Amino acid sequence: MSSTDHSTEAPQFTVPAVDISAYTLGGSDAERVEVARQMDEACATVGFVQILGHAIPSTVTGGLAAAVDDFFSLSMEEKKKYLAPGNRGYSAPKSESLSLSLGLESASRMNDFFEAFNIGAEARSFPDLDLSEEDYGLNVWPQVPDFRERVEAYNGHAARVARTLTRIFADALGEAPDFFTPLTDHSVDVLRMNNYALPEGTVDLDGDLTGMGEHTDFGLVTVLWADRVDGLQVLGTDGTWHDVQPIEGGLLVNLGDLTARLTNDRWMSTLHRVKPPIVNGRILRRRSVAFFHDGNIDAVIETLPSHLDRDNGLAYEPVDVRSHIKAKLGGSQQGKANTAAVREAARVFAAER
Fold first, then answer.
1. How far apart are CA 38 and CA 193, in angstroms?
2. Counting Cβ atoms within 10 Å, is residue 342 exposed (0-12), middle (13-18) or buried (19+)?
3. CB–CB of 252/50 below 8 Å?
4. Which of 165, 120, 162, 144 is nearest to 63 (CA)?
5. Cα 84 to Cα 139: distance, rounded to the nearest angstrom
6. pLDDT one-digit tens code per residue, 173-191
7. Whole-prediction pTM
C-alpha cells in the first residue's frame, strides 16, 4: 500500500507474483511460455517480482536465518574482527551510504543505519580463467559454529535461482536460451546479509531514520530473502514510495542496472530503500539476505538491438561490468558520488522523498 495516498481512486500498488515451477521443477513448453510472459509484464511494469516455486527447501532458509542471527548477535568488537577490503566481510552501521551510488547526498547527511556481512564468488572459483582477486574479493569466515556451511547451502540455491531467472529472461526477451551464458559464466556474485536492528539508545528515533538509502541494484538480477516485516519501500511509476514485503513462502526479485541497460529501460531497475518500522520508539527487528547476480567482470553490456527503437532511438552507452560496479561501490562505500547514474538520480528527485 502507498505510503502517501493522493486519491482514493488511484490503483493499488502491487508486486506481481510469478510461479517459476515450470522452470525449476519441469513443465511443458506452453507453461514456460506463460511464465516468461508473466515475467516480461512484471519486469516492464514494476521491476520487482514475488517469486514462488523457487524450490529452496525451508530447512535451507531456516538455516540461513539462524546463521544470520548467530553472527549479528556477536559483540561489535568481535564482528569488527571480520572487516575486510572490497565488497567482503563485515560492514558496521553508518559505514555506507547507498544513495551516493546514485550520486545523491542523504537528505539527513547521515550514512545508512544497517550492518552487513558479505561473501561471494572468488577469482579462484574459476581456476581456468586469469582473473584478479581485486575484482572479486576474498571471503572471510567468522568463527561461528556451522556458519559457513549454512550460508554456503543457501548461497548455492540462490545462485541456482538467479541463473534460472536469467534463463526465463532470455525467453521473455525473445533471445536464445543461452543468451546470458557469456555474460554470467564467471559472474561477480555477492551474498549480502543485512541486519537493521540497533541497540536501544544508539540513535534518536525521530521517524526519519534511514536503514538503507534509496538506490538501484548494480547488476543483472537480485534474489532477496527477507523477514515479513515492513521496511522495504519501492518507488512506483506514480512517483510514490510503497511498502513491500515478501509473500508467504516467496522470494523478492528485482532487476539491476545492467538489465535495464540491456532493455533500454523497458525493464526497470527500480529504486528502493529501507525505512525501518518504528513502534513506541523502538525499531522492529528486520533481516534480509540479498544475492546479487552481477555478471562477468569483463563483460560489456549494451542495449539489445530489439530495444533500440525506444527513447527515439537513443540507448545507453556500452559499459563494462568492472567500471560500472566500481563507480557504484565508490559511492556507497567510499563516499565518492557516482556521477554516471543520471537516469536513476532523476527518478529520485522526481519522487516524494
1. 29
2. exposed
3. yes
4. 144
5. 8
6. 999 999 999 999 999 999 9
7. 0.87
